Every structure is written in structure tokens, then in C-alpha cells.
## 1
Amino acid sequence: MKKTVIRADLLEMVFARREKSYGAYELRKNYSSRLTKATVLVLLLFVSGAVAPLVARYLKPDTNITTETVKPIEVDISELPIPPKEDDPIPPEIQEVKPQPPRIETIEYRTPEPTPEDEMTPEDEDKTIAKQDDLEKSTPGLVTQEGDKAGALDGIDDGDGNIPSVIVEKPKEKEKPKEPGINDLIFVQKEPAPVNMSDIRKSIGYPQIARDASIEGMVVIRILVDKSGNYKKHKIIKQAHPMLAKACEKHVGKLKFTPAIQGGKPIQFWVNVPFRFKLER
């Protein structure tokens, strides 16, 4: 007897008594063929991506080799300078001449020593000893010479024409005016007055957080005003709340004042500036 082999497809068995319009029957049936095609396509793309740079490098010409056309340069021999002769002397090097220091006026300073009459010479008779007053007004030295009177000698002339170095005193710097203390009691004819207070109050406004928390009160800032009426520095001496003081400090440096007057002249002066915060009921 012949044996009969029955081959059954699992997909057909599942959809034997079902509607094939549902359950992705077509997708399941063609799954194997699509998987094979996709695998082959991926392999082809991978191989082409690996081989493409090698093919491109082989086909691309070498750009490093360049050909340049060298053009000949025409030179007119008649325009060339005449070469120097071997016998021509070499020009000497130019040496830098340093400026000589100024010559200072000095008076000869000698310690008086008696000389016996029989040993005196005509030159000794012509020499005179400088007086003490002349030495105090001038700079002493070994010889008497004319020159500038400004400056002082840092050494003594050796008599051979060598000028010692000169020390010139620097002018004294003007002392800066001392700032008044914040608690100093100073009497003035006119105290500083702010000229742009309304603009500063508008810039400060009323902090919204303080308004929501119903915070009210006074902030007093003590400001140092300079001679020109400009703000210099400040210190808070009274505050109802740090939030209000911080809002004032952001804009207090923009205040302008009329300067304080003492003896008809402007001076630096500390002045109190109040800021009141009050909510409307």
C-alpha cells in the first residue's frame, strides 16, 4: 500500500474556518518572501557603502599634482645699480650720542688752613674762601662753576669736568579734602536740597510684595553730598522693613542736590532724606 503524506500549512489551518479578510492573512502569508527581500536589500546597501569610497578614490584624479607655467622675467641690465668697488671705504657706524646732564651751579667749599708766607704762590693769593651765607644759598662743590640753580647735587664734582647726577624734588601732591564724619556737627548757611526727588519717588514706586503684605512705614537715608551737589555715599539710619529699604537703595544714588554753603563756599555735607510708604485705605 502506498503511504499518503499530508502536508498542512499552519496558516491555512488557522484560517480554515475563518474569514480571511480579517487577521492580516495576506501579510502573514507573504511574510517569508518580504523578509528575504529585505535581508538581501540591506546586504546590498552595506556592500555598496563599503565599496563606494574605494571606487571613488580609484576613479578620482590626484589633485595634489599641479602644473604651473613659469613665465620668464625680463631684466634690463642697464637699470641695475653699479656694484661697489673693493677699494671703496666702508662707511663708519653711527654712534648714539647720549645727552649730557645739566651743569649745576656750585661754589667751591674748602676748609680754611693757614699757609706760611714763604710757601704762598700767586695762585693761592687770588683764591678766596666762600662765606657761610653764600654756601647756604648755593650747592657746595670742589670748584666754583656756573650752571642751573635748580636741583641738588647727588655727589661732588671731581674737578675733571664730570658732572654728578642731579636730584630734583618732586612737587608735593595736594591733600584731598577730608570727608566729614556722619555724626559731625557742622553749621552751614544752607543745607543741601534734592532737585529731582519726584522722579526718584516714581522710580522707587511701591514694592508689590510689600503692598500685598500691607507693609507700611518710613525709610530714612543719610546721604553725603559733595561740593557739586552729587551723591557720594549713604547709610540707612531708619527702616520700617528691609524690603522697603532695599527698594530705596536701588535709586538713591541718582539723587541730585543743591550743595551745602558755608562761608559762601560749597562744602561736603550729610543730609537726611526720608521716604514714606503708606497704603491707601
## 2
Amino acid sequence: MVEISCPNDCPYLASARDHPPARIVRQQEGDLASIVPFMRDFNDRQSQLFFLLLTFLARYSAKKPRYSEFSASSYLSAELESLVDDDVAEAFGALAATYETASRGVLYEHRPQAPPAERLLGALKPLLAEAGKAGGSVFERDAAVVMRKVEQASRQVLPSASGDRRGFLDLVGRVIRAQTDGDRAPEEPEAAPRLIVP
């Protein structure tokens, strides 16, 4: 092999640097490197709950509110108050506080202040109720730890380049989309005709 020194404006070098698949791979590696530190000390149950919540967040933040879900006056405000990272942090902080007090034997439901955070909390409740059916206080402790980590992650991930305050939600969307794309089973080719030779 021969190595030549290319100038920075070489079209071949620029093409290699900007090749979409390589750029996507670099972004995916960076995204995973941003998420992994938050789940460093998790046990198996906590890891499963963490990814369950991230998957839920990716689907929830991609979903637009339907007109039938709101009255005419609240529809406009719901559109203007779309979910941002601060809402995620507030909702998960309230849930973490609720689970922490429940694990100590005190039943008190903490509520977020922002309406989008309140809607997110309301949407999370059935998912958590189903996940914690047989868990008891062990589930409450695990859920509190995971909720605090999601809250921490949503506060620490930087806003996206456009400054729309959805850096964490965008990151979660990319990580979950990459994971589900990688988990898809390859389509089986149609069975080729077989010839039996005696």
C-alpha cells in the first residue's frame, strides 16, 4: 500500500469524511457513549426498566397530541407546550420522589408543575403499574433509582444544535431507533425452487 498526503480540500478525502454511513456510525457510537454512564451501576432489573422507559419516551415524544384528547382551548396550548428535556426531568423527578417516599412506607404522590410534564407523568403511570405488578418494595426502590438517573440524564445532555431544548429526547430517539433497526430480523428470501436429481 502506498500512502499519499492529501490536501484538506481533496475531493476524495472530503467524500470519505462525509460518507453518510460512517457519519451515522460515529453518531451512534457517540449517542451510546452519552447514555452508558447513566446506567453504569444498574442491576438487570434496573437496566430493563431503564430501556423500557427510554423506549416509551422515544415513542411518546414522537407522537403528536390528537385534537380529540384536548378541548378546543387547550389544544393550542398543548401544541405550544410540546415536551422538552426540562419537562422530562420534572416528570421523572416527581416519579422518583413518589417511589422514594413509597419505599419508606409513606404514600404521597409528588406532582410536576409544567402541564407537559404532568401529561408525561400521567402517560407513564399505566406502564409503571404494569411493570411493577409483582415487584413490591423492591420494584419501588429500583424504579426510584432509574427515575433519578433518567432525570439526571435529561438535565445533563446538552441541547441539540438547533437550541430547541430537546437534546436528551433527540438522543433517546436516535438510540432507540438504532436499537430497533438493529433488532429487526432480516427478511427471509423466498424459497428457491429445488431440483431433485436421482
## 3
Amino acid sequence: MIHAVPEMFKPKIRVEYPPDNKQIFEEWFYDNAYVQVQEPWIKRHYLPIFWTSFQVNNDYGKGRKMHELQAYIDGLDRSKKYFTITQYDDGPLVDFKDLDIVVFGSGGGRIDVPIPLVCMPHPYKFDIKERKYLASFIGSITHPLRQQMVDAINSLPKDQRDRYYIWTHRLPIEKFCEIMADSKFALCPRGYGKSSFRICESLQYGTTPVYISDEFIEPFDETFFEFGTKIQNPYEIHEALDYMDSNGWEREGHQEWWYQHMYTFEALKTRILEWLKRLS
């Protein structure tokens, strides 16, 4: 059942991130799972608050309207059970108190069921016969781990360093995608949030994601090693990737399977609905 949430708590987000992500998953799920969440086997009420949009639009959770959201949460019927979905980096910025709610989350904060950080596919396609780079990263320095990663790559001998494409300034999104598609591995360091959209983007292009973080979000508690690899210490990146490359670890088509089965909007919707079957 869908709980009737006031429209003020379901705004459209004011930013498009990453580029080409015309609608974030929270909003898409509401539009595309309307029938399924009302099936009798769904025992929890769907609370369709667009946490990311509302909190970003309200000074990233510091705006005065956050008090209205907290008051709304406080007024919910405590005899009912709920679920909600958020990708916001810090999760829902409210106090649920004694509310029985399950949070499907991809960014951080309160997460009861971890889900992947997904975005709409990029429209660009490339005819690449042989990938040029061992690994690549294009992005800004939004977390100390990213700077450590860049420093670690820059400290390599030139012949090893030349196997990477590292760029920390803005590039056109089509070029971003082309470099990723031309790389065997995509460096996906966390930013402010614990996860990275690059995991989803790399899988779209059949590139193996390298998830670099100090805290990992494992989608649906499934092992990340099935389709990528995790690294905590940036100075271990080259040794790990060189070994994997030498042993033919990256498998063409394997990433595509995982993309289609967990990292598209439709696939993630299916996964969430399946998980809801298990929840009382």
C-alpha cells in the first residue's frame, strides 16, 4: 500500500547528477512501482518521501522546511509498518523514533537494506576493439581517499603511471564515458557519500569497477567480488590491478550481466520488490 504523502515532500530535484540522470531512482520507483507495491503480499506501507530531492532543495537538510518533515514523521500512525527508499548521502535527516520503518539506502546514514547507487544510462556508444588504459578516473577531489588515490598513481614509475588516465578537472560527459569505455578498470572512489555512481556507469560500459572506500555499501549484502573489486588502501591499487590484468581477471560480458540484473532502474525495482516479500 502507498501511504498518502503530501506533495510538498515529493519535489523534483533541482540538480542533474550525474549528467544524463534525468530522474533519480527514488522518483522513478514511485512512478513505476505504483501497482506492485499495492499487492497484498507487500506487508509494509510505502512511504514515498523523495528524501534526496527534498533535502537537497532545502539547503541540504538545513532549511526550515525540515521541521515540517519531522512533524509529519512524528504524526505517522505507529501501528503501521513502513518502508522507504533514499540515495541521499546521509540518508533521511529525521528522527524516526519508534516508527517501524525499513530504509532501502544507497548513500549512507541509516540503511536497513543496502542497495546500489544507480543512475540512468548514458546515451553514448563507442566501438572500442581493445581497451587502451589499465584504469581511469575523472572527477573532482571530494574526499581525502580520492587525493590519496591520485597521489598513489602519481607516485608510480612512469611506465606504470602511463597505463592510467587520471583527470581531476571537468570534462564533457561524452569524453568521460569514452575514457571509461576505453579502460579495463574504472577507479570508483567514494566521495562525500560512501558509494559512487561510477560503479553503475562502469558496468554500463563493461568496465570492471574498483570500489575504493573506507566504508563499503554491499548491495543487498551480496559480494562485490562477483563483478568488481574493493580496495581500502589506495597504495595497493596498482599491485592489485596489475595482478588481475595479468591473470585475465576482467571478463567481457560479466559486467554487463550484473548491470542488467542489479544496476538498471528496472532491475533494482525488481530486487526491492523481491526483498519486500521477505519483510513482515
## 4
Amino acid sequence: MRIAQETGGYSLGAADLLRRAMSKKKPEEMARHRSIFVDGAAGKGVDARTATELFNHMEKFAGYGFNKSHSAAYALIAYQTAYFKVHYPAAFMAANLSTLMDDTDKVKDLIEDCKAIGLKVLPPDINVSGYRFEPVDAKTIRYGLGAIKGTGRGAIEAIIAARSAGGPFADLFDLTARVDKQFVSRRVVEALVRAGAFDCLNPDRAVLLASVGRAIDAADSAAAAAGQASLFGTFESSARHVEYVPAARWSEREKLSNEKLALGYYFSGHLFTEFAAEARRLAPTPLAAVHQAPIGRSEQVKLAGVIVSARSQNTRRGRMGLVVLEDGTAQLELMVFSELYDRKRALLKEDQLLFVIGRVRNDEFAQRLSVSADELMDLTEARARAAARLRIEVEGAGDVIRLRDALNPYRVTNGHASEGCRIVISYSNGTGSVDVALPEEWRVRPEDRLAADLAMQPRVRRAYYNYV
């Protein structure tokens, strides 16, 4: 601004307009200011060539330069935040999480940062958590109820007020009875259940979610009956009745999927964990190893992970997919080009377990690794390609007819035997055991559901896939 005043003849106000034009990098504005600056410099005895060179230097500096006063202010803030993060990590990270609690992606990143620096983040708790994230001690943070999607500040403050006035909640029915329904709806309670906020009272989230409607109805009935006098002029009182709705217990996958609905990500575990043991036999390279090891750029790798996000974009060669995989060790971007994308599009959806054969690419411009996919498979196809065998362990005299009927729907027919796996029945009784391999025409599709169905059959101890 001083150069514009002294050399270009600008006023203070006009010099500030030049500064704004430079910061916004608008070509048409800069072209106009260039002529103004050169003309103004000529009026002060500076030749056009010198004035143009000076303006060029100013324009170039604006592309990367930073004001010294700003630099000093940012340096001070950087020092202060680094000091707090080192000496008061729990308080510092809790404050950051509370500030960004409405942005799920940033909350997830900060939670990972907490783990990286040795902090423990406790799950949300309906009887302990506040609206914000709070430090419990120097190494522990309690999850804030306000970060649960679908709740809202008014609902959480109403819950905390009821808890402060009447003490901790005894169960789900106690909460719905004590909290004002004007603030806490069914949607809010269901979000709290999915997030695990009631685990301290009842760890069976499936039963709790199924019982939310009953708990709200019971609270409404109790409120309607309150104050009604009996025939004798006395007020009726009845003990609070708690009766949960029976429900099948969630699998780990169902639990995490519901948790993701409430928190925006998997907090208590990872979806890949359920498949990790088998997936590592089919694709032994963890995603973190791709980042750490100097894998040859032409070397083919076998990877597995759960899809975190999937999107597509148009290119000159057709539509391609950009997929982010995660296996609990790292994330990796996957590039799926048009022909493969068209064939395997149905697999590219969030939370899908995906097996990849591909080649590592190093994007020098973006400074990141990605994998160019040559082939994509789900677990069933990966098992078939790896020559998996379905092993059925039978104790004593099993029901052969029922076993046959359970296998029949999964048999591979129409000459596609290569897409199925062989069956080995391991029979044992009190005196011995023997393995019986069924013939080729009894190949089956290696689906998870088949193993689960077989495990429910009489005399079947377990059914699982193994590799030879």
C-alpha cells in the first residue's frame, strides 16, 4: 500500500482497493490497476518500464506473500495452541471437539488425533455426559451428547436439567417419564440409543430401540393419569412399570451401522473387524503397509477394506469411480476405471466389504497414494477364487435330508462350477472321525448366510470356510 501511495500516486483508500484486488487475484481488476499505477508513476517521474516491473513484483509477491503482522499473530496462536495440546491435552482436545461437534468428519479426525496422542475418549453416557465434550482427567475425555446427530441443544439441555433435578436415570422408561416431551421426541431417544448413550443402563441396544415407543407411551399414560382422583377422593398412585420389548440382539455389524447413523462414523469398533481374520488370509496386505512400504509402482497388490465413501465422475474414457477404503489401519483411495466400473458398480456402496487386485499409483501432484483397480470382488467371489472349502462339522448321526435341503438353494448350476466351492463334511462320533468330500456337482456359492443356516441344523457343530 505504501508503494502504491508513494510511487503510483494512490490515495489510502485506493491503495486498499489495490490490496483487495491482489488478494482476490482478479485478472480484470489487476489489469485496470496496472494502467492506473503506471500512469500515476509517470506523474511522479517514474518511467513506464520501471513502473511495470515494480507492479509485476507486487503482483508476484501477492501470490505467496503474507503480512508480517498477520504472521506474528498466527505464530503466537500456534505457539499457544501447541503449548495447551502438550500440557493440557484432554482440555485442549475437548474444546476443539466441542467447537467442531456439528461437523462429523472433523469430529472423526479429532477423535483419531486423540488416540494418536494417547488420550482415551469415553462413549456418550446418558447419566454422565454433558452437552459438550468434557475432560475427565489429564488423559480422558467424555463424549458430548450434543455431538449425536438428531438430538439438538434444547433436547440435551432438557435431559441434563431432569438429571440434575432428580438424579441419574434408572432406565429408559425413567428418562421418558421425567423429561418434558416438548423437547425430547422419539427421534431424539432413538438417536441416543443408537449412539450407545444408554449402555450404562442396558447394553442391549436392540431391545432398547424396540422399546422406545413403549416407553414413550407409558410416560404419556402416566402423565394423563396423574392427578385423577379415585371414587374416594384420593389420588391413585401406581409403581412405574418397566417392560422391555423382546428383540434379537444386534450383531457387531448391526451395532456399528446404527452407531454410524447416530454419530456419523464407527466409534466403538470398526466394521472390518468382523471379517479381519478371513480377509487377511485372502488379502494379506494391510492398507497402512501400502503407505509405509516402498511397494513397486508396477507391482500388483491384493487389498481388502470397507468402503467409506464412493462417488463417480465423468472422464473422456467414460464414467469412473473414486472409492475410499478403510481397514482400521489406514484409508486408501481406489480408482476404478470405466470398464471395471460398469461391471462392478453394484459393489461400490458404503459399508461394503471389498477385495481389490490392483496397482499402486503415486500422485506426485496431490502428494498421495492411490490404487488403480484391476479387479474388484465381494467376499463370496474372493472365497471362490481362493478355492475356499466349506467345512461342515457334524456330531453323531445327522439328518442327511435336512442337510441336503439346506445346501440345495446355494448349489452352483448351469456349468458355473468355478464360481462355487467344494464341501467337506467332517463326521465324528464317540469312537472316531472322518472327512468326506462331496462330489463336484455339490459345489455351492460361499455365502455367509449359508454357513449361518447350516450352523442352525441339528447335529451340526459349526460350518465355516477354510483354505488349502
